[in-house]
Amino acid sequence: MKSLLRTVAGFSMAINLLWLGPALFSLQVFDRVLTSQSQETLLVLLLGLAIALVLVGALDFLRGRLQGVLGNIVNDAMAPEIARLSLAVAARRQGAFTNEALRDVGRLRALFSSQGLVAVMDAPWALIFIAVIAVANLWLGLAALLSAVLMLGLAYANDRMTKQSIEKLQKDAGASQRFLDQAMVNAEVAQAMGMADALVGRWNALSAKVADLQDPVAQRSVAMASATRIARQLTQVLMTALGAWLVIRGEATPGVLIASNMLLGRALQPVEQIVGSWKIMAEGRLAWRRLDPLMSEAFNRRPQMALPAPNGQLSTTGLVFRPQGSERTLLMGVSIRLEAGESLAILGPSGAGKSTLVRLLIGLWAPSQGHVRLDGVDLSRWTREQIGPHIGYMPQDVELFAGSVADNIARMGPVDPGLVVEAAQLAGVHELVLGLPDGYDTQVDPNAALLSPGQRQRIALARALYGNPKLVVLDEPNANLDGAGELALAETLKRLQGKATVVVVTHRQTLTQHVHKMLVIEGGRQTHFGRTDEVLAALRGGHAPAGGQVVSLARAAQAAQAAQAAPAAQAKV
User: Fold this and answer.
1) pLDDT-derived band of residue 89, with 50, 70 and 90 as boundaries?
2) pLDDT at position 470, please?
3) Which domains does the chain have, with CATH numbers?
């Protein structure tokens, strides 16, 4: 970018120097050609001016093309990195996330491709043109300087009048767009329960608020642009009158008058263009300010040495998590240890902090206190690109991506058919996929009903197992499964024993027989942790075997008994 900006600035310098040609041509014609009656001089001057104007046209064309390239470079260089950082922010979901950052990249692209950037580079040359006028005549030079100060004052006033309004307008427009995007995501619920009119009404109210802000901003911008144009014409008229008065008094020549007017017009033109492009420039400036922290984070991120692939030993020490900007603690004092190849079931009532713990275990969230270690290495020391392939994760709310079933299982990367089939077989979904219209090439529409929630969940399980990860974390993996799906999941957990460290969040006791250890969370606190038989004994009101690390709680026992009775009741139904 810097290299291209220097090149654009160099073209601007050459163009502005060549724009001295018409003024010098007028000066020579009125002060030399008309008095000498020399046709040869006129012809030479015409030839020289024609060459200068051809060069101006060529350089201006090249400068415009370079601006387009510069805009593309801004987009291509920033958009992928901003998208990565935006995905990380969305995954953390701490604070409000929007895709406004990507729209800001578009605003920067528009800024670097706009005439406003050219005007900013041309504006300093106004001093050169005013200096040339002052050399020809001091009074005309002072008048040109006052005209430039007036135009700059109008530009500054425009900035003061519209800056806060444009910032507020962008903020409210982003809120309106976010509300509409969220409504579209939940369109099924809205349509089923007749919420469409209410949602549209609320979105319309937000849009009306944006329109109420947009109209005054547009009016002020148009008014300032008109005032700038009028001020420019007025200053040139007054400049002409002053020059004529000086010619009458014999203190200037007609050539100086004409040349000064032309140079003044050239000096004031960039200021007028800046005012005309002010909205784009103001939006670009605000976008740069918002993107600066994100880009600084990316720029200051130091490359880390690649660590060896983990074996799967997982441990946590005194985990505490408090959302950013909140005083509520969601998780407090969780300490567990799993050897490579062991499995863990996490149980607890709704809102106990199970999903919070899951996000900490896979490194999506950073703990407020404590550590999560994989093979003794803090998860924060791995980049997501390094550790991601070694982690299999299935969230509670399963979402598939637009693409084929094979693309989804392969995590939207290059499809390795052998690994895709292996993951599908390990998840017990191979036969299900073969029964789809195009098998593994069946296209997945995230909003279509081709796949049932249970089928999506089983494909997501295959995606989690793709590439034989060493840590597999499943959040409510049987939430939407039927009997066959439950059996396939149980078989998968058996096959994973000894091959990967598995963490399963579940409300159903049926899965606990396939895990080595259990963890019970209540109110964000760890109440039980130990071998499965120890924890189950404590939950049923008995005593744990010697060496057990569990303490019985009446409430946890009641919950466990209710959960244990649920499968029998379901079977009877």
Assistant:
1) low
2) 92
3) 1-299 (1.20.1560.10), 314-540 (3.40.50.300)
d(CA 267, CA 21): 14
How far apart (Å, rounded) are the C-alpha atoms in residues 287 and 531? 54
The two tokens of residue 514 are 């396939």
526-562: per-residue pLDDT in tens?
Answer: 998 999 888 888 877 744 433 333 333 334 334 434 4
What are the distances in angstroms from CA 494 to CA 128, 427, 458, 559?
A: 81, 11, 16, 26
Selected residue with higher pLDDT from 19 and 450: 19
Which long-range contacts link 47-50 to residues 24+ away (Cβ below 8 Å)? Answer: 48/21, 49/21, 49/22, 49/25
Work out whether strand 501-505 and strand 343-347 pair parallel, antiparallel, or are unpaired: parallel
Q: Of 469, 482, 387, whose CA–CA distance to 422 is shortest?
A: 469
Give, in order, the Cα–Cα distances in Å from 182 to each of 177, 186, 187, 200, 282.
Answer: 9, 6, 9, 12, 28
CA–CA separation, 431 vs 435, rounded Å?
Answer: 6
User: CA distances (Å), 30 to each of 41, 101, 245, 257, 362, in order?
Assistant: 12, 57, 17, 10, 80
Residues ≥6 apart with Cβ < 8 Å to 353: 321, 330, 331, 521, 523, 524
User: In which residue are the tokens 């009074």 written?
Assistant: 139
Residue 562: its pLDDT value, please? 43
Of the chain, the percentage scoring pLDDT greater than 90 comes to: 16
C-alpha to C-alpha distance for 268 and 281, rounded to whole angstroms: 18
Q: Are 1 and 73 in contact (CB under 8 A)?
A: yes
Q: 93: how many CB neighbours lie within 10 A of its CB?
A: 12
Residue 477's nearest CA partner among 321, 354, 341 is: 354
Rounded CA gap, 539 and 544, in Å?
Answer: 9
Residue with tokens 């008048």: 143
**Structure confidence at residue 300 (pLDDT):** 67
Rounded to whole angstroms, the Cα distance separating 353 from 350 reads: 8
The whole-angstrom separation of Cα 150 and Cα 233 is: 12
Q: Tell me how far apart the alpha carbons of residues 289 and 294 are, in angstroms, rounded to a whole number.
A: 10
Distance CA 474, CA 396 (A): 8
The pairing of strands 314-321 and 377-378 is: unpaired
Work out the number of other CB atoms within 10 angstroms of the CB of residue 16.
20
User: Mind listing the pLDDT tens digit for each residue in 140-169?
Assistant: 889 888 888 888 787 777 777 776 777 677
With CA atoms as reference, report the closest residue to 360 among 94, 26, 31.
94
The distance from CA 452 to its chain's CA centroid, rounded to whole angstroms, is: 31
- Asked if 273 and 118 touch (Cβ cutoff 8 Å), the reply is yes
Q: pLDDT class for 302, splitting at 50, 70, 90? A: low
The CA radius of gyration of the chain, in Å to the nearest whole number, is: 35
Mean pLDDT for 17-32 is 87
Give the three-class secondary structure for 98.
coil
For residue 47, is pLDDT > 90? yes
> In the predicted model, what is the mean pLDDT of the chain?
81
